[in-house]
Amino acid sequence: MFKMADRYGDAFSLHVPIYGPLVVVADPKLAKQVFTAAPDVLGNIQPNLSRLLGSGSVFALDNDEHRQRRRLLAPPFHGKSIKNYESIIEEETLREIAEWPQGTAFPTLPSTMRITLNAILRAVFGAEGAALDELRRIIPPWVTLGSRMAMIPNPSRTFGRYSPWGRLVEYRRRYDAIVDTLIANERADPDFENRTDVLALMLRSTYEDGSAMSRKDIGDELLTLLAAGHETTASTLGWAFERLSRHPDVLTALVAEAETGDNELRQATILEVQRQRTVIDAAGRHVHAPAFDLGDWSIPHGYSIIVSIARLHTDAELFANPDRFDPQRFVGTKPPSFGWLPYGGGARRCVGAVFANMEMDVVLRTVLRHFTIETTDAPGEKYHSRGVAYTPKDGGRIAVRRR
Ligand code: HEM
């Protein structure tokens, strides 16, 4: 996409197998038009992750069904509810970093993956004990396999239990059995009404017509939250460590700030990591209307439109010296609303954005308080595609000393 944008500019079309005819845009005005279009005009891009997650996933829904599901999902991911999860994140971070080696470089990504997985399993699934242990075992290999298969069309049969598709079916069978146990345990909890995990909130909430979420939709949606929230946040944290170890001035200032209750610079740093090392490089929509007017063009029904988020993040008109890692650019200034888009935009903007931001803030604060990160003048790590998210190729390697 970057090479084509260099050649053809900030709007071009191409034909991609599986997705069909596509228009790619990397201009803030066009991005705004795409993200603010009515949901009956632009729906979610097809195919999308719901092929793997199930028809009950929010990714599969459009129009009213999508709006209603978002209403149901939004409360646990906002303001007051988020506060409840902070202590879980801090606990998981402390547990993980207790094992960090000192003085030798190691990749942080496996650690950040475990922290974000455990955080979601506890805060979202409300899992504990044996169910938590089993989920911890099956999810990492399942997500790795699922990410690799995400862009490959589903075959009409599974090719046996040892084929990738057969293994995906088996993971799902084990996962469903655990979710049944979790639901039964939650319902049996005498304190069920006061539980704050997202599963309990889903079990307690109802749609506008009074109906509850079905068992299948709950399973699909929990899996969606896990798949969407785990690798993305972990990869961004991996990049954060990679960036900080190469920017001593920022690191020194962040360490000093972490001693205080402030987080202005840490927040600006998170925004800058998300700009300069974007882990989800694009968000897509599909034209449902007979045509969609976009800038000077009319995009026909059946086309998909991709907003190249990563490309927008390198736009020198939006971000001066875009190649420079400079958190100061976001101190005291909000990022441009349709230029800084790591969470996509509009009605489908990431439902977990506030959760992810809080999680990254708490993980960074905890690490900065307990360890000195050694700096390096090694070149930046290259990008590695895990299928959905882009991670630092060497896993965000750093060397640390306990403070
Ligand atoms: C740094 C971490 C994260 C990044 C970069 C990220 C990025 C994104 C992006 C780009 C989208 C597509 C938005 C669009 O189409 O306009 C998205 C959607 C979504 N994200 Fe995230 N995400 C992150 C963390 C999370 C977390 C922690 C959760 C939940 C626990 C989550 C749940 C979701 C869900 C459910 C959607 C689908 C929304 C819909 O279709 O209505 N994400 N995310």
Helix-strand category: alpha+beta
Q: What is the first-to-last residue Cα distance?
A: 43 Å
Largest sheet: 5 strands, mixed
Let me know the average pLDDT: 94
The proportion of strand residues reads 5-15%
Low-confidence stretches: none
- The gross shape turns out to be globular
Number of helices: 14
Order of helices and strands: HEEHEHHHEHHHHHHHEEEEHHEEEEE
The amount of helix comes to 40-55%
Would you kindly provide a written description of the structure presented here, covering whatever features stand out?
This protein has a single domain (about 1-400), classed as Orthogonal Bundle (Cytochrome p450). It has helices spanning about 1-10, 30-35, 50-55, 65-75, 80-95, 110-125, 130-150, 165-190, 200-205, 215-245, 250-260, 265-275, 310, 355-370, and strands at about 10-15, 20-25, 40-45, 105, 280-285, 290-295, 295-300, 305-310, 370-375, 385, 390, 395-400, 400. The protein has about 400 residues and is α+β, with helices and mostly antiparallel strands. The longest helix is centred in the middle third of the chain and has 30 residues, at about 215-245. It is globular, with a radius of gyration of 21 Å. It has a five-stranded mixed beta sheet, with helices on both faces. The protein has 14 helices and 13 strands. Protoporphyrin IX containing FE binds near residues 59, 225, 228, 283 and 351. Protoporphyrin IX containing FE binds near residues 283, 350 and 356.
